[in-house]
Specification:
single chain, alpha+beta, 2 domains, five-stranded mixed β-sheet, two-stranded antiparallel sheet, 10 helices, globular
Length: about 280
């Protein structure tokens, strides 16, 4: 399988998100810890001392990757128990376990435009989330799905318990839903009060999300959609906190305004080489 050079933000900025990925296991097999590295993350292409070259790496990301059909047939399908996190690392680890290779190919360049979750990300972020995106986004990065995915990955690879702390980064993705209130609040209240209010807002959102993300997902996808299937599979029901969560997210959903599942992360392909060959 092959992964391109991943950029973040508009192509003209040439900001690297990952030039291949590296995984490092530490400790005994029964209680290992795993660290992952996005090579050259945050580096501008113009800052590189030497041109990037194709090489083997440990993982590529699902932003964009090229995988041979026979590789999936040999490795097996994606692990559906990984609902929101670690899925790309899991698949690449299985490719390696089956004797395959993962390659980084810098002649292929792709950028993506995620919604900003911190003010510092404004220069590399894409369009803000639409109101119809929020229910699915809240479910996609929900406390429940993030914790469940992280714990499943931890047990699958025999990782020690402190690996659970990695769920925090996944939960922070939802701050993109709240970011639009930060700038006007700062102008009105000043930076000190705005920061305190932001912490309260984030804590409140976390509590509500832990109780009601499935309900939001059902609203987003309808009675026959993917989220309804997840609800039934988990044996969960919408909770009474749905209205409170809707008010917090300021949702206005109508069936004619179907969510754009690709909207929260817009991919743009810069160039693709004529030939790529790898397992």
């Amino acid at each position: 399988m092959v992964g391109p050079l991943y950029l973040i933000g508009e192509l003209e900025r040439e900001m690297i998100h990952a030039a291949g990925g590296e995984l490092h296991f530490e400790g005994p097999t029964s209680a290992r810890y795993l660290t992952s590295e996005h090579v050259l993350q945050g580096t501008h292409i113009s800052e590189l001392a030497e041109p990037l070259v194709a090489r083997r790496c440990d993982f590529a990301e699902f932003h964009c990757m090229l995988v041979r059909t026979e590789a999936i047939e040999r490795v097996g399908p994606f692990d559906e128990a990984l609902l929101s996190a670690r899925e790309h690392e899991d698949f690449c680890l299985r490719v390696h376990a089956h004797g395959g290779e993962v390659w980084f190919e810098p002649d292929s360049v792709v950028t993506y435009l995620p919604p900003a979750r911190r003010p510092q990300m404004a220069q590399v972020a894409g369009p803000p989330l639409r109101s119809s995106d929020l229910p699915f986004f809240a479910l996609r990065w929900s406390e429940h799905w993030n914790e469940r995915s992280t714990e499943h990955f931890r047990r699958k690879y025999g990782l020690e318990s402190r690996f659970r702390k990695r769920v925090r980064a996944a939960n922070e993705q939802r701050q993109a839903m709240l970011l639009p209130v930060r700038s006007p609040t700062r102008r009105v209240l000043g930076p000190y009060l705005e920061e305190r209010l932001w912490r309260v807002l984030v804590r409140t959102e976390r509590r509500l999300n832990a109780r009601a993300p499935i309900s939001l997902g059902v609203i987003a996808t309808g009675p026959n959609g993917q989220a309804r299937a997840k609800v039934e599979a988990m044996g969960l029901e919408p909770t009474d906190l749905l209205r409170a969560t809707q008010a917090l997210y300021q949702l206005s959903y109508a069936p004619r305004d179907r969510p754009s599942y690709q909207r929260p992360c817009v991919a743009r392909i810069a160039r693709i080489p004529n030939t790529c060959s790898a397992f």
